[in-house]
Amino acid sequence: MNARLVGLFLVAIVIGAVAVLALTYWERSSRSKQQLGKPDHGAESIAATPIDASRLHNVFRMNESMFSGSSPDSEEGFRELQKIGITTIISVDGATPDSAIAAKYALRYIHIPVGYDGIPNETAYQLARAVQTSPGPVYIHCHHGKHLGPAAAAAIQLCLDPKYTPEQAETWLKLAGTDPKYRGLINLPRTLVRPSAEELNRIPADFPKAATVPDLTRHMVGIDERWDHLKLVKAAGWKTPPSHPDVDPAHEALQLKENYREATRLTASSKKGEAFLAMMIEAEASASELENHLRTKPIPADAAAKAFARNQALCSSCHERFRDWASGS
Ligand code: HEC
Predict the structure, then answer these.
(1) Region 89-104: what's the mean pLDDT?
(2) pLDDT tens for residues 216-247?
(3) Residue 52 confidence (pLDDT)
(4) Burial of 115 (0-12, 13-18, 19+ CB in 10 A)
(5) Full domain range(s) for residue 268
(6) Is the pLDDT of residue 25 over 60?
(7) Is residue 60 domain-shared with residue 180, that is, in the same domain?
């Protein structure tokens, strides 16, 4: 009798356990299906593209006709874009697009730079109009593909698709890894005022291959390039990085210093005031210090690391104070 009860009890436990496992599995699989979604359903369609793109980074697909990602820095990058089927590239950062190489791969370039402090409505409408009047699929890029590019893609989709909700745009920015510290970009889904069809139609569809970029932005693009190289130099133990045999460490620091010096002289810099100029001069001094260490044999690694860190801290603190801030956010 007792043995039979125990048997029944065990059977009940086994049935219970199987039911719990089945429910968990069902819940998990339906959740992952939701994440993959269908290609034509706004946020549900958002998925990291299954694209084998070794030269491009942070490539995400907004929908069938729009992707965002990093800048195609090399010829191989353009080749990969062509392979994906892209026909139009829109750059939204300050670097001058290489439209000659793009043309070689039958890719058309449009350049509409935006800032880290947010995308004004008028610029968002221009971007939307550019996509609306260009053959697709379109690839929207900034340098790394994480902040400006995805924000521009969200703005475009909000302008062009009335069914695309601000919540979907927020999910998209999260997926792309847009840093919440860029409040103007993160708040864009809520602050953008959608245009009417007539408003969009009124915008002339002639967009530049390379926009005129303000001097300070141009110098920052140069500083950023030098800085990318110096990061590789640091990772290689203060030597020429194997991936970039043309990079001369001390020369990179020298160019960084010169970029800072020139940037300090710009009217745009003096307009930002004394505190800005003081930071710029300190950044120049830290670049000069780094240069001296990189010219010393053997290179004093600890001192070089200190000068590097001092410079890095200045990039962040100056941007926080003078670049990433958006009025009303
Ligand atoms: C003293 C202030 C200051 C320092 C130091 C500074 N920046 Fe900037 N940076 C700015 C400002 C201001 C802008 C926005 C310029 C504009 O109006 O487009 C900017 C813009 C940029 C941009 C965006 C360019 C674009 O395509 O729109 C990048 C990238 C950048 N900085 C990288 C760096 C890096 C890397 C460092 C450090 C190695 C650095 N900056 C140091 C003030 C600074």
Answers:
(1) 96
(2) 999 999 999 999 999 999 999 999 999 999 99
(3) 59
(4) buried
(5) 215-322
(6) no
(7) yes
pLDDT of the residue at 218:
94
> How many helices (H) and strands (E) would you count in the chain?
14, 6
Q: Which of 223, 270, 290 to mutate to test the pocket of ligand 1 (most atoms within 8 A of CB)?
A: 223
Question: Rounded to 10 degrees, what is the CA torsion of 81, 171, 120, 195?
Answer: 90
Q: What is the C-alpha to C-alpha distance for residues 249 and 141, in angstroms, rounded to an integer?
A: 28
Residues with CB under 6 A from ligand 1: 93-95, 113, 115, 214, 216-217, 220-221, 223-224, 227, 276, 279-280, 283, 311, 314-315, 318-319, 322-323
Q: What residue owns the CA closest to ligand 1's atom 18?
A: 217
Give me the sign of the Cα torsion angle 57, 58, 60, 66: negative
CA dihedral 165, 170, 175, 176 (to 10 degrees): 100
Whether residue 86 is found in the same domain as residue 136 = yes
Determine contact, residues 152/158, Cβ cutoff 8 Å.
Answer: no
Task: Count Cα atoms within 13 angstroms, Cβ side, for 72.
Answer: 28
Mapped onto helix, strand or coil, the DSSP state of residue 29 is helix
Q: How far apart are the CA of 62 and the centre of ligand 1, in A? A: 28
**Same-domain status, 183 and 267:** no
Cβ-contact 191, 329 below 8 angstroms: yes
Task: Give yes or no for a contact between 89 and 102, defined as CB atoms under 8 angstroms apart.
Answer: yes
Give residue 133's Cα distance to chain centre: 24
Residues 278 and 260: beta-carbon distance below 8 Å: no
pTM of the predicted model, to two decimals? 0.81
Last-in-domain residue among 171, 201, 231: 201
Span from the CA of 315 to the centroid of ligand 1 (angstroms) = 7
Distance 238 CA to ligand 1 centre (A): 24
Alpha carbon 112 to chain centroid distance?
Answer: 15
Tokens of 12: 């009940």
